[in-house]
Amino acid sequence: MAAAATTRSGSGFWQRRATIRRFEKATAYVLVTFLGILYAIPFLWMVSTSLKPPWDLDNVPPNWIPTTVQIQHYPSALHKEGRYFPLFFRNTLVYVLLSVFGQLLSCTLVAYGFARIPFKGNRFLFTLVLSTMMLPAQVLLIPQYLLFKQLGWLDSLLPLVVPQYFGTAFYIFLLRQFFMTIPRELDEAALVDGANHLDIYWRILLPLCRPILITVFALSFVAHWNDFFGPLIYLNSPKQMTMAVGLLFFKGDKDSLIHLLLAASTITLLPIVAVFMAAQRYFVQSIMMTGLKEG
To answer: What is the pTM assigned to this prediction?
Structure first.
């Protein structure tokens, strides 16, 4: 009898525990769904307003669904003379791709050196690299501007692209931590077979680091696509402008209502949404594995 009572008591405990876990999971799903909807509201409102006719803009209370869908707002916003949005898109794409490639190349090389090549002063230099994250970009703005002016790089993409080939501390940290989760026995076996560090970096580590590489690519892509301050400072002529700065051409235009600005903003955001949709399944995996190995 005592054994049966103990069995029933233990079974009840595990049933209660399973019920609590299901309740916690359901609560988490509800909370995440609510937060997702909350964050999506501005984007949905932007898309809705970009499709509204002008007489819908001043409705009180505002209506979420346009009375008449105006698809022609998009070509009107992007192809008006003087805005050059197709050219802005091309400039932005060139700037982003060159910058992302530079960051991936430089950051993976530096992270490989810190993670896989033991040398005197490794930890000190790594700490020094991380300390650069505490330096605001605005502090370097005037010296960098004067330097690029002396080099004759103003009003070109060079001041925006070239610095990306010298590494970024945050991405170096992420990549270095991920590299350290990969067993060193792979390096030792490759060295025994006659491989050098470049072979190990290119043929062994990079193929195993797909999640973190895609994560860095997505973060870098979004950062450069949304970059407003850099192009605003270094680019002067309209033919060199990027999409983020090109939205300023709606300012002061009496013919440009808010729905045209939001139509252009929607087009500007679509590549970012596409990149995150494609890369989202790699984020959690890369971030979880980044923290498995202590520096």
So the answer is: 0.85
